[in-house]
């Protein structure tokens, strides 16, 4: 049975013993293991049933010297670190391959690094003195957890310490940015920190092309609830589906559709930050309800919504009558 606790010392003890520990971040809860403990890292892969070629993100404390693990940090990347760390931005660098276990990189010569903006995890990292890998604390490909209880529900039969830091304030995973080139960058996974926000900090041009780097969250299907999730490009199509479908339906939309009960409806917010905060929380709530089907209205196809749209498109399927 999982143990939910607020005691950092218990989490540190388990991490030092080579046992994965669930930790809070501002994005989602992570299943953590020290970067220098291969046994613990393998245990994380096994618990999640995660493919071994799927790289992990290294989590560091504020102001740690990255050159212990990273070959070079472009000037623009340093500017982004100063602006957004701690926070939901992951940077991919060329790594010092003798300092980073290839399990972490998926056999690549690059490593993804971020500095989580949660005071409990920052304290944990400082006390531990070692970076942590921390993919989302749920079975691979399923909905990420944003509360300690979500983690417990994901691993009901595991002996797992869960460090309870409350509900995650961001609610979706970090933006991942390729910072392996000195003169340009590329967003590899969209989050709430978008290209417009980045351009307010740096003048470095961004690329929009095929990129062969493997990073988390890039598979065609991901973040999936247990129940079928249909997405719709507009409210009218979603409303017609609800009107003509005999199933019990959980709806996330800009208005309450006909036939959908109040307790099975969540109003889709008009700001990306609010929708990100609620998205996984509502999908998990729908999964534990007595409905058969989940429906969601897609937010606008604009840059600021791209991170949320990407997750919905990977989590669900488009409805075709």
UniProtKB/TrEMBL annotation:
<keyword id="KW-0819">tRNA processing</keyword>
<dbReference type="Pfam" id="PF01300">
    <property type="entry name" value="Sua5_yciO_yrdC"/>
</dbReference>
<dbReference type="InterPro" id="IPR017945">
    <property type="entry name" value="DHBP_synth_RibB-like_a/b_dom"/>
</dbReference>
<feature type="binding site">
    <location>
        <position position="174"/>
    </location>
    <ligand>
        <name>L-threonine</name>
    </ligand>
</feature>
<dbReference type="InterPro" id="IPR005145">
    <property type="entry name" value="Sua5_C"/>
</dbReference>
<comment type="similarity">
    <text>Belongs to the SUA5 family.</text>
</comment>
<feature type="binding site">
    <location>
        <position position="189"/>
    </location>
    <ligand>
        <name>ATP</name>
    </ligand>
</feature>
<protein>
    <recommendedName>
        <fullName>Threonylcarbamoyl-AMP synthase</fullName>
        <ecNumber>2.7.7.87</ecNumber>
    </recommendedName>
</protein>
<feature type="binding site">
    <location>
        <position position="110"/>
    </location>
    <ligand>
        <name>ATP</name>
    </ligand>
</feature>
<keyword id="KW-0547">Nucleotide-binding</keyword>
<feature type="binding site">
    <location>
        <position position="144"/>
    </location>
    <ligand>
        <name>ATP</name>
    </ligand>
</feature>
<comment type="function">
    <text>Required for the formation of a threonylcarbamoyl group on adenosine at position 37 (t(6)A37) in tRNAs that read codons beginning with adenine.</text>
</comment>
<feature type="binding site">
    <location>
        <position position="114"/>
    </location>
    <ligand>
        <name>L-threonine</name>
    </ligand>
</feature>
<feature type="domain" description="YrdC-like">
    <location>
        <begin position="5"/>
        <end position="193"/>
    </location>
</feature>
<dbReference type="InterPro" id="IPR050156">
    <property type="entry name" value="TC-AMP_synthase_SUA5"/>
</dbReference>
<feature type="binding site">
    <location>
        <position position="27"/>
    </location>
    <ligand>
        <name>L-threonine</name>
    </ligand>
</feature>
<keyword id="KW-0808">Transferase</keyword>
<dbReference type="GO" id="GO:0005737">
    <property type="term" value="C:cytoplasm"/>
</dbReference>
<dbReference type="GO" id="GO:0006450">
    <property type="term" value="P:regulation of translational fidelity"/>
</dbReference>
<feature type="binding site">
    <location>
        <position position="136"/>
    </location>
    <ligand>
        <name>ATP</name>
    </ligand>
</feature>
<dbReference type="Pfam" id="PF03481">
    <property type="entry name" value="Sua5_C"/>
</dbReference>
<dbReference type="GO" id="GO:0000049">
    <property type="term" value="F:tRNA binding"/>
</dbReference>
<dbReference type="GO" id="GO:0005524">
    <property type="term" value="F:ATP binding"/>
</dbReference>
<dbReference type="InterPro" id="IPR010923">
    <property type="entry name" value="T(6)A37_SUA5"/>
</dbReference>
<keyword id="KW-0963">Cytoplasm</keyword>
<feature type="binding site">
    <location>
        <position position="50"/>
    </location>
    <ligand>
        <name>ATP</name>
    </ligand>
</feature>
<dbReference type="GO" id="GO:0003725">
    <property type="term" value="F:double-stranded RNA binding"/>
</dbReference>
<feature type="binding site">
    <location>
        <position position="223"/>
    </location>
    <ligand>
        <name>ATP</name>
    </ligand>
</feature>
<feature type="binding site">
    <location>
        <position position="134"/>
    </location>
    <ligand>
        <name>L-threonine</name>
    </ligand>
</feature>
<dbReference type="InterPro" id="IPR038385">
    <property type="entry name" value="Sua5/YwlC_C"/>
</dbReference>
<keyword id="KW-0548">Nucleotidyltransferase</keyword>
<keyword id="KW-0067">ATP-binding</keyword>
<feature type="binding site">
    <location>
        <position position="59"/>
    </location>
    <ligand>
        <name>ATP</name>
    </ligand>
</feature>
<dbReference type="InterPro" id="IPR006070">
    <property type="entry name" value="Sua5-like_dom"/>
</dbReference>
<dbReference type="GO" id="GO:0008033">
    <property type="term" value="P:tRNA processing"/>
</dbReference>
<dbReference type="GO" id="GO:0061710">
    <property type="term" value="F:L-threonylcarbamoyladenylate synthase"/>
</dbReference>
